[in-house]
Write a structure and sequence with these properties.
The chain is built from eleven helices and 17 strands. With 367 residues, it is α/β, with parallel strands linked by helices. It has two domains: 214 residues, Alpha-Beta Complex (Quinone Oxidoreductase, Chain A, domain 1); 139 residues, Rossmann fold. Strand 11, helix 6 and strand 12 form a beta-alpha-beta unit. Keywords: Oxidoreductase.
Length: 367
């Protein structure tokens, strides 16, 4: 059997297909056949300028994947051929004794100094087939979906898990609360749908570009959803929309730019939770974005909470699996229109479309 791999030769380079012989899975391993991959904004960054975590080129990108189990190795009982699975990006280090990743670990993989990420240290899914090692199968973020489940939904397990990590880390910060989402990209659109599912009182979406904001409001809006253009009056307009409350309860930064991190603290009030969700990064690493916090007056007396989520643990993966399997995001298909669907030989075009300011969720179909 042959597997075709789409290698990116270098940042800003080209994808080149390569055929390789496909081995049988060993003990504890499973072999996957890629069905759909959705494009993350980190894929856009890697394609355009690279990332320090990627040490070797050519590289295999794409980590938001849904696959069918193609074959299982000896001893595997939790999966069988024909199962549809979705995968997370952040994965354990493979050390069974690790206090974070191992047999008796906490599951906080992003705290492990040796953690891996798919599409970074672990090869991504820009390939027709992949074999998962036994430790990934045993400990890793891999979830089986019901028979007949839509693979285009299953490949969105990982980005949805990242979103839910941020929205559920602090208890009761969404239900019956005012939620502010900075940016109107895919993560804010996931967050908007999750906030609706979790019965937020009002959801305020802020964006600079009118076209994508209009699309999100048109397709995912409702009586409790408000869009605000990101201009010089944005702070004033957000506070007006928070009435009769004095301030928002939850602010999520979903725009990976310094300006979003400058805006978010201006929206903090009494008891506000801020989730710094979209990190700012590039080929040179992560720039320092400073903000002064008064630990006594802001944190203690105003009960403000500053948190961040990047990546996802099994808790987020399980939550996302639950939301998807139960159909709690009934409009998720609207995140991908006809201009955002591509075939396996059009990865470069798919990434280019994902970089457009009016795009939401690009999906690549591996047929």
């Amino acid at each position: 059997m042959i597997s075709q791999i789409q290698y990116l030769d270098q940042p800003g380079g080209q994808f080149t297909p390569s055929d390789q012989a496909l081995a049988e899975p060993g003990p504890g391993e499973i072999r996957l056949k890629t069905v759909t991959t959705s494009v993350c904004q980190s894929d856009v960054v890697i394609y355009k300028q690279g990332l320090p975590r990627i040490k070797k080129w050519p590289a295999i990108l794409l980590h938001e994947a849904a696959c069918y189990v193609d074959a299982v190795g000896e001893g595997v009982t939790q999966f069988e051929p024909g199962d549809l699975v979705g995968l997370g990006c952040d994965i354990p280090c493979g050390d069974e004794a690790c206090i974070y990743c191992g047999e008796n670990g906490t599951g906080d993989w992003t705290s492990c100094p040796n953690t891996w990420a798919t599409g970074h240290e672990f090869d991504g899914f820009a390939r027709t087939h992949a074999i998962l090692p036994s430790w990934f199968v045993k400990y890793g973020p891999i979830m089986k979906f019901p028979q007949g489940f839509n693979p285009s939904h299953a490949c969105q397990l990982e980005p949805l898990a990242c979103c839910l990590e941020g929205m559920t880390r602090v208890n009761h910060c969404i239900e019956n609360r005012i939620v502010v989402l900075i940016g109107a990209g895919s993560q804010s659109t996931y967050a908007l749908q999750c906030a609706q599912a979790m019965n937020a009182r009002k959801i305020i979406v802020i964006n600079r570009g009118q076209e994508r904001l209009k699309r999100v409001l048109r397709d995912f809006g409702g009586p409790n959803v408000v869009g605000i253009l990101w201009d010089e009056s944005v702070v004033e307009n957000v506070y007006k929309e928070c009435q009769p409350f004095n301030e928002p309860h939850f602010v999520m930064v979903n725009a990976p730019v310094a300006a979003a991190y400058e805006l978010a603290p201006k929206l903090m009030g009494y008891g506000t939770v801020m989730d710094a969700h979209a990190g700012v990064k590039g080929a040179g690493g992560k720039p320092r974005l400073s903000h002064e916090v008064d630990l006594n007056n802001d944190i203690h007396y105003r009960l403000q909470c500053y948190q961040a989520t990047h990546g996802s643990s099994m808790r987020g993966i399980r939550l996302a699996h639950q939301f998807l399997s139960e159909g709690r995001l009934p409009k998720i298909d609207l995140m991908t229109n006809d201009t955002e669907r591509f075939g396996q030989h059009d990865i470069e075009a798919a990434i280019g479309r994902a970089a457009d300011s009016d795009s939401l969720k690009v999906i690549i179909h591996w047929d």
